[in-house]
Amino acid sequence: MTKTARTMSPWHTGLAVLVTVLWGFTFVAIKVGLGEFPPLLFAAFRYIVVAVPTVLFVPRHPMAWGWIIAVGITMGVLQNGLLYVGLGHGMSPGLSSLLLQSQALFTLLFSTLILRDVPRRQQWLGVGLALAGMGTIALDRGGNTPLFGLTLILAAAAAWAMGNICIKLAKIDNGFQLFAWMSVIPPLPLLGLSVWLESGQWAALRSLSWLGIGTMLYTGLISSLLCFGFWAYLVQRYSPNRIAPFSLLVPVFGMAFTVSLLGDSFSRLEIMGSVLVFIGLSCNILTPTAAAAIAPTPIPPTQN
Fold first, then answer.
1. What is the mean pLDDT of residues 290-298?
2. Can you tell me the mean pLDDT for 23-27?
3. Among the four 124, 195, 241, 302, which has the fewest Cβ within 10 Å?
């Protein structure tokens, strides 16, 4: 079955849903891991777990090192660094899983400015609805949503979008191989930022528990390497426009997991804003386009 296939097999549909379930759970794993590590140190360990087997077993991606570094900085250091710090400053994992998907909107805006790829009217409508939803959530910042954490999550989404633009300009053809090799870039910058901005690193390492090890392995090997490999496999078999909408399930599972496992709760304003953001993202992702997607291989929701 090729990219031009009209329908996905039940097996591949199930695989796509499984990936979104695992990515949705990632936000719970990160929140739990932040009880064991300082945020930037934890983010560094996530990429170290991926980088070690990559260097040993994965052939190097043919993309020039300049592009690999650019993607590693935007999608590794900035996106995940900001995400982890935002969660460490009190952001709900479920709400973060939703707001991080605003990367699709930032990608649309950056693509318009940088690539001159003009969106359709339905996509602009989606941008407006999503921005209205984010504004509604921001109105509730005096309650359960810390403004600083909210700003960091949105900045993480913008960094992810810039990574998408870098990937588009670099014209990749193997998303899994690229992600594996871009993982060698973030550890040193994240470790340096951790030394500069954080404390308690040695205490965290001395008291390292199986829970901490488990969250590192899950976010690194399962959420990043395994799920990205599955995602790249599906994109290589089907149109990116058919696979990308599955990313809308990530915040659904993310919010469900945080409510059921972490006892999270959402105010009425947060629920209202979340619905607006979800509808806006749906307008953007589900709009048919004549051109290819922003990135040849849609970068999955998280790298979360």
1. 46
2. 93
3. 195
Please choose, from the candidates 172, 171, 177, 185, the residue with its C-alpha nearest in 3D space to the C-alpha of residue 79.
185
For residue 295, pLDDT over 90 is answered with: no
Domain count of the fold of the chain: 1
Task: Give domain status of residue 299, yes or no.
Answer: no
Higher pLDDT, 144 or 54: 54
For the chain, give percent helix, strand, coil, nearest 5: 75, 0, 25
Nearest to 98, CA basis, from 215, 286, 272, 299:
272
DSSP 101: G
Query: Which tokens sit at 148?
Result: 């600083």
Largest CA distance in the chain: 55
Quick check: is 210 in a domain? yes
pTM flag (> 0.85): no
Lookup result for tokens 């934890």: 42
Q: Which domain range does residue 16 map to?
A: 12-286
Burial zone of 73 (CB within 10 Å; 0-12 exposed, 13-18 middle, 19+ buried): buried
Confidence grade of residue 296 (pLDDT, cut at 50, 70, 90): very low
